[in-house]
Amino acid sequence: MAKLAENEILKVDGLKKYFPITQGFFNKHVGDVKAVNDISFTLNKGETMGLVGESGCGKTTASRSILRAIDPTEGEVLFRRKNGNVVDLAELDYNKLKDVRSEIQMIFQDPFSSLNPRMSVLDIIAEPLVVQGWPKEKYKARVEELLDLVGLDKKYMTRYPHAFSGGQRQRIGIARALALEPELVVADEPVSALDVSVQAQILNLLDDLKERMNLTLLMVAHDLSVIRYICDKVAVMYLGKLVEIADTEELYTNPKHPYTASLLTAVPEADPHVEWLGENLKGEVPDPSAEIKGCNFASRCPYAKDICENKEPELVNIGDNHWVSCHRKEEIDLTGVK
Amino acid sequence: MANNNILEVENLNVHFHTDEGIVRALNGVDFKVERGEAVGIVGESGCGKSVTSTSVMRLLPGVGEIAAGTIKYYDKNKKQHDIINLKADGEHMRSIRGPEMSMIFQEPMTAFSPVHTIGNQIIEKLLYHEDIDKDEARRKALELLKKVGISKPEQRIDEYPFQYSGGMRQRAMIAMGLACEPQLLIADEPTTALDVTIQAQVLKLIKKMQADYNLSLILITHDLGVIAHMVDYVNVMYLGRVVESGPVEEIFDNPAHPYTQDLLKSIPRMTGNEGKLASIEGAVPDAYSLPKGCPFHTRCRKKIGEVCESAYPERQEISADHYVNCYLHQDLGDK
């Protein structure tokens, strides 16, 4: 089995998730939707990584394959457990997986559908504790502790989710995710369903918890300003592949992949004095089931040349842990944000 | 006549009669749109920004009632129409809705009928309002689709909405909004459902169309980034009222209402933030039981005291065309 370096907690290697397309009476297999197509990255202990991309790029599928909510088609997901053992999440059987799952938790996007309306806050937050066999006397005190941690009053413990606002519900979801002191937390768009004023509360809470609990966080999001606020490093995903990985500051100020640059300049900054360059991409994302010979971004890339359409670029390290997959990374001059 | 306004909304009150009680969605909304101007309405969910636009279009659902206020619309010939007193589904309102003012909705998948082709839906609008035959209408629809940047419009015109991608559907929506060449275009969260690169395309298209057709625009959104780059004048709404309004640069440079100030400080920036984000404590109060006085006093960190709970503060002009409803900007005297 491949190894993890001392400070690494997660190593994803060649992860693929294909969804088969079938046709006809016999469900003949006619193709695959390549939702996640060979992605690799590592995550260090205590680090927060953002996985960013537009809808349909496979970021949610990637995060779900990593925690085995769905079975990946191919690839390795090495995870260092609390006790120091390294396991491959992609090939663990059901029983062993249950044990490991106490160390990996998830925060969901929609605070309205991710909490069972028929369970009280106490039951919701205690659920992971119950599953892991905590006795009832012990878990109540733990739930109180958790409510305090996420900034909710413990007197709310007996209430049901409908009594809470979106922001408060998201706090409950976070408390549930932290109940077992996980090593790794995967947050899938944790703030995108919230209003800006409430979004700021939750972002501050996550930032705070990250420091206090030395959390390792994998955050899936489409909002680049949110990613910038909370993440130490960022992986940009396009059509099932990672096109660029770098430390946050480096990625935002010195993007090397044309797609990253387009994403950065497409966002209008909330300041009328900052020039908005807007869009330089033509067309829309291609069908993820199509066979693409070269670079999968070539059809929309303003810098595409012959080589881009014929040869697939590799994700290479260009120094300082900045990884880019582009044939023309040295030739083109891209602007980021200041 | 010096009046160059195309729309004047004054003291608009809209109530929804639901089983749980009356929801006071709008509690005296005032704003105006000058001819050719782009006006933004910004606020968080539940503040009444969409209710404002549907009231202007007279498209409120059955449980919604315009309880008080006036909406005046000035048409191509500067003739005044008193929108509130028109029958919502009457002949007069229908002659305004479409050729005079038109709307782009947030979710183009639900705004289009799924069982008619995009082309037929645009043609239907043209045939209803204009005195032309089918061939002429089809030619016009084709031209519109071309204008909004739909590739292969000859083929696309006969396709159904599900065959379009999200960005294209929104383009088609804009084409439909522009059919019959309206004077006023209301765009309600036109890019919220779209990805950033597609959002940029659609926003640029709306800007271009505004210039090409010399449109007046009302842009409704929760995204302050979109507001900053798309409009000339901003109305900030909170719980059914416009709490601050001003030219876009004034609002961003010198926000006067504590709500606007905090809202601006609570957004994460692309350029990075200094220190922590400011967040507004608590959540938006329930619309069934609105707080007395200033609706923001329950969350305001600059609350003066009882005066904020007593009555709603009057509108105050603090610089040219910059208005705010807040006691901080009033001479309270011996109160």
UniProtKB/TrEMBL annotation, chain A:
GO terms for molecular function: ATP binding; ATP hydrolysis activity. One of its GO terms (biological process) is peptide transport. Signal peptide: none annotated. InterPro entries: AAA+_ATPase (IPR003593), ABC_transp_ATP-bind (IPR050319), ABC_transporter-like_ATP-bd (IPR003439), ABC_transporter-like_CS (IPR017871), Oligopep_ABC_C (IPR013563), P-loop_NTPase (IPR027417). Belongs to the ABC transporter superfamily. Keywords: ATP-binding, Nucleotide-binding, Transport. It holds the Pfam family ABC_tran. SMART domains: AAA. This is Peptide/nickel transport system ATP-binding protein. It comes from Halanaerobium saccharolyticum. It comes from the Bacteria. Residues 10-264 form the ABC transporter domain.
From TrEMBL, chain B:
Keywords: ATP-binding, Cell inner membrane, Cell membrane, Membrane, Nucleotide-binding, Translocase, Transport. One of its GO terms (biological process) is peptide transport. InterPro entries: AAA+_ATPase (IPR003593), ABC_Ni/Peptide_Import (IPR050388), ABC_transporter-like_ATP-bd (IPR003439), ABC_transporter-like_CS (IPR017871), Oligopep_ABC_C (IPR013563), P-loop_NTPase (IPR027417). PROSITE patterns: ABC_TRANSPORTER_1 (PS00211), ABC_TRANSPORTER_2 (PS50893). Pfam families: ABC_tran, oligo_HPY. SMART domains: AAA. One of its GO terms (molecular function) is ATP binding. CDD domains: ABC_NikE_OppD_transporters (cd03257). It is found in: Cell membrane. Residues 9-264 form the ABC transporter domain. GO terms for cellular component: plasma membrane. It is a peripheral membrane protein. Belongs to the ABC transporter superfamily. NCBIfam families: oligo_HPY. This is Peptide/nickel transport system ATP-binding protein. It comes from Halanaerobium saccharolyticum.
